[in-house]
Amino acid sequence: MRTEQQPERRTGRRQRLLSLLTASFLTLGAGVAFFTASPANADPVEECTATTGAIVAVDFGPFGGPVVRGCDTTPTTGYELLHEGGFRTTGTVHDGDGFICRIGNGSFDSGTEYPTPAKEDCVLTPQATAYWSYWIASPGQKSWTYSPLGAMSRTPGAGDVDAWVFGGTDVGGTTGKPTFSPDDVRARSGVPTTEPTDPTGPTRPPAPVDVAAATRWLTGMLTDEERVVDEGATAPDHMLTTEVVYALAAADPKSPVAQKAASFLASPAQTDTYAYPAGKDGIPDASAAARLALVAEATGKDPRDFGGHDLLGDLVEYVCPRDIGDGETIPGCLTKGDFRSTGQADAQAMAVIALLNGEVTPPADAVTRLTGLQCEDGGFTGILIRAGEWCDSDASSTGLIALALKRAGGHGAAVEKARAYLKKSQLPTGAWPSASYLTTGSAGPTGWAAQALRALGDTDRADAGVSWLSEQQLPKGGFGFEEGETDPRVFATTPVVIAGAKSDLVALTARKATPPTTPTPDPTSTPPAGDGPDLKKGSAYLTDHRRLVQGHYYENAKGSGFADFGLTIDGAYALAATGHDNAALRNIVDFLDKGGKDGKGRGIHDWTLIGTTYAGGGFIGKAAVLAEVVGRDPRDFGGQDLIGALAKAICPAKTPTPRPCAAKGNYTYATSVFSQSLGVMAQVRAGETAAAAEPIAYLKSLQDPSGAWPSLIGEKSDIEVDSTAMAAMTLDLLPDADSQAAVDKALAWLAGRQLADGGFPGASGNSVNSAALAVQGLSLDATKYADRIAKARTFLASQQNTDGGFNVVKGGQPGSDVRASAQAVGGATGISFGTLTRSLDGTDPEPAPSGSGRPSTPAIVTPGEETGGTGTSEDSGSGGVLASTGAQTLALAIAAVLLMLGGWGTARAARRRRGTTGSEA
């Protein structure tokens, strides 16, 4: 299932889903009334400080109450903080205690838990218009962040504050935040609310990066000193090859290896493959064209005659003339000024720099577009957002865009705001984090920030960053993505080398032309290790008995005995995609198919709810697809006819409320695109395409003009990566021209959402789950999107920990999460859920692990170590579960269904008409 999607979905999908008090607050004057909880078991709020304990605030405004605060001086999880802070909670019947459905406190209305049973029965996941969402803030943080983890998976730090708010939210994260600030609810001894206008920078002695060692490592990553080839692949990774050229040229303007690699990229066949996937005379991939133009400028070649193309002329020709909402939709355009098909802030900035350094004046709208990406704090976001959308600053994007705007001139105010942001966000160590709320450094962002500040005259700041980087250099010479990472990465090393050479991307590509030389190939060079994740280690993480209870299921919370069946199926999908442990896969399937019961006596159909009023088309579809994947009969799985049940679950008409039926053709209680897609996929795979005609038509009707799909059905919801990838995989099973056109449009939109580091935006940030699903979706046309797929797999590798598992989001709470890992392992293979198969013929199931009735409960996950809970970071369903509900539950029963259903992860698309790619697991 989608890893964080689940969580997201559940609450999370609601994603950042910011749900926030659409409610009334008790006001004192113009402010909100804050009460302090004082149950006997709660620590006094005064004992929680900036260095001890954490505060939790629950807003009962929608129910006529105040914002109530509580304290826990030694919280281990957000869930415990809530309870030790004096609050009581109730979960859902479907997902257990992990999904928080009601909250109460003795200081308000005699402890009544809200919403009351009359308003919400708490059987399935509440609707996104009325549920408890979960927000967090670290010491010194002035605004709330939607938690990327469920409360059972998040570990609050000293001085943190958590907030729970009830109401409606939106998937895009643009509405729903608490109306009070973190400082409003901090303990009196909390951090100051003011900051110096020009904060003092870190003081540390200067130390250089060993640029020579870094370039030796990068050179070793090239096959025949001309191209990067990912592990298990034969085609070159053009994007990473451009990265190597930049670094080598920065270290030595006459580098023969940089010249050779640039010549390789300049061959017509390679330029066409990389930058002109639509054909030699088609619309270029603006990101690739900009990168190649910068390669030409860095190595003295002509960007107006590179690989048989005028790269600069093509960039100027294909700038979007209008917003997506003004007139007919233009493929690859979001708003006026975009370079068509970029979708990323870094590509937009690189294109502007390439044009300026090639002595071509970029369209004014293209430069202005960059200024529209500046957030309130002065930093820039890495996503090409539209006005009013959620803006989340990061150091990498801020550094690169500041360089572009400085080069363009006329944008002094925006550049100064960016400069102030970079100075303010620099850590005491001299580093910059990959996300604004983190306290540990990241190599790539530090490299970009140092480049920009040096160019802006802040030499001491830049030197401090380089000094920190010198301590992060690995024995082989390269750099990992995050502080303490032991595996060097090309994408992290390049900005460090440029910064270490005391240069920047603008200065590097503005150099005078230098005569190319032809180096002699080194016959001893060997193919480099790829940047994709280690799927064998990932599979081992998923099957470890400390997570997979008795080899049969994952729990929704550590030690609960309550199976998270949706997550369990996600794990099965992942194992089916890789084929690394068929015995473990069979154990799971046999448990589900042959009447296995969890620690609470529940079986698979206590989750699908077949035969009850709440039978969910998404849950049934997810189970049916698993049966189809492993060759079991979906018409007799777990003693039920799942395909027949899906046919009965097709809504004949819309019901007065979105549940159970949002429209004709919707499956009952399928409140997400993920749920609807799973039902359709199951029916089509079972040969029941005709019977699924109405659900198919309804799924198609939900596609946005941009090509994307929203998260939720029947209520307001933003378009998003996860649901779009899932819908595309589903419709790709249909051969008709209309379905294939919908898929093509979806893939183009997906490609445009990729971030600079290869990741994709999800409910709670730069999401592992979203990146994995995007790999599966883009692999439906693997030849066209090979570069983006490779970049996304590199991102996934950067989020894999030493225990084999994966983080939920980049820059979030570190530590492996089962849900995220299941999606990452399966998704990295690129296999579509629609075509995934794994024969279990001749496979004998392994015996269940020895021990007492149930295996010992897994320990809380430690970042990068093998200890995690069964579900997500600490509990089976928690880490990736709806952050907002804090739950780890998988099912999102309805709204969460989406997550649930979707979060599965797995694979790599063996598509008929489109090519295939990915790692052969």
Helix and strand topology:
Blueprint: H1 5-10, E1 18-19, E2 27-28, E3 31-32, E4 34-36, E5 54-59, E6 67-72, H2 78-84, E7 87-90, E8 102-105, E9 131-137, E10 145-146, E11 161-167, E12 169-170, H3 182-185, H4 211-220, E13 222-223, E14 227-228, H5 238-251, H6 256-265, H7 268-275, H8 286-298, H9 311-317, H10 345-357, H11 364-371, E15 380-381, E16 393-394, H12 395-408, H13 412-425, H14 443-455, H15 459-472, H16 490-500, H17 505-509, H18 535-543, H19 565-578, H20 582-593, H21 605-608, H22 617-629, H23 642-648, H24 673-685, H25 693-701, E17 709-710, E18 719-720, H26 721-731, H27 737-752, E19 760-762, E20 765-767, H28 768-778, H29 786-798, H30 818-827, H31 897-902
Helix pairs in contact: 4-5, 4-16, 5-6, 5-8, 5-16, 8-9, 8-10, 10-11, 10-12, 12-13, 12-14, 14-15, 14-16, 18-19, 18-30, 19-20, 19-22, 19-30, 22-23, 22-24, 24-26, 26-27, 26-28, 28-29, 28-30
